[in-house]
Design goal:
The chain has 271 residues and is of the alpha+beta class. It has 6 helices and 9 strands. The chain folds into 2 domains: 95 residues, Signal transduction histidine kinase, dimerisation/phosphotransfer (DHp) domain (Helix Hairpins); 156 residues, Histidine kinase-like ATPase, C-terminal domain (Heat Shock Protein 90). Strands 1, 2, 3, 4, 5, 8 and 9 form a 7-stranded mixed sheet that branches. Strands 6-7 form a two-stranded antiparallel sheet.
Length: 271
């Protein structure tokens, strides 16, 4: 009997060690992929600034106005780079534990209101439709409000910046354990594309010419940053469909843990 108990304990310990090893390997893969994507992302604005400065230093500007314009472009590139670095450093500090996210029960209605506030004017200016399905009042998730809204808004604004036509819709599918938020982008433009299983997130579609400067962050980095934030809140972010698969639609699924609705104590006291 003792030998059987010892064997069962050993098997349980082995299963736990195997699971821990697999989780650690996946985490290392995510970190390595994020570092590779970050290195690639930073090259573009730095190269742009160096090229502009080289034109000025070589006296290749045709007029003082053109030289001033080059200085302005370099300054704007530096500002975008600084903003991107701030976002990357925040994620890195989350990974190492020096920054903390504090998830709590969050109403999807509250989150969608924040996303709409940060995205609807951008969509309106570009002439794209933006629709957010009205969630049930008692639909709650476990998330940090500011960071969750930021993660979704980054994806929506990235889609608006790169899509050529169509519209965007956010829907909610509540469940007993998980709440699924779907971002559906109806457009023929491929903003993200799926890659092999060894790559932990989608890449920018290959039809983007390399010599055309991209907004910062690029679609790939925006997805990476949002996915990192979602992971730190116990959720997941997945690319489900792209126009490359046949239909003119990109679909992203954000999966978050379900939370019990928060009772408003003031309303309870009033009753």
């Amino acid at each position: 009997m003792d030998e059987q108990q010892d064997l069962a304990q050993l098997q349980t310990a082995l299963a736990q060690m195997t699971l821990a090893y697999e989780q650690a390997s996946q985490l290392n893969q995510l970190k390595a992929g994020f570092l590779a994507r970050t290195s690639h992302e930073l090259r573009a604005p730095i190269s742009s600034m160096m090229g502009l400065h080289q034109l000025i230093l070589s006296d290749l500007c045709e007029s003082p106005e053109e030289e001033r314009d080059f200085v302005r472009q370099a300054h704007e590139s530096a500002q975008r780079l600084l903003k991107l670095l701030d976002e990357i450093l925040y994620i890195a500090k989350l990974d190492y534990g020096t920054n903390q996210i504090h998830p709590h029960p969050l109403s999807i209605q509250t989150a969608f209101t924040g996303v709409h506030r940060l995205t609807h004017l951008v969509a309106l200016n570009r002439g794209y439709g933006l629709a957010l399905t009205e969630p049930e009042p008692d639909c709650y998730i476990i998330a940090d409000e500011k960071k969750f809204v930021q993660a979704l808004a980054n994806l929506v604004n990235t889609a608006i910046a790169f899509m050529r036509d169509g519209d965007i819709q956010l829907t909610v599918e509540p469940g007993p354990t998980w709440v699924q938020i779907r971002i559906r982008i109806t457009s023929t433009k491929t903003i993200w594309e799926e890659v092999g299983a060894d790559q932990p997130w989608p890449l920018l579609t290959a039809d983007q010419p390399e010599d055309i400067p991209l907004p910062l962050p690029s679609p790939a980095m925006a997805f990476s940053l949002s996915r990192k934030l979602i992971h730190h809140m116990g959720g997941d972010l997945t690319l489900l469909a792209t126009p490359a698969q046949g239909d003119p639609m990109t679909e992203i699924q954000c999966q978050m843990l379900t939370a019990d609705p928060v009772v408003d104590l003031d309303d309870g006291a009033a009753e």
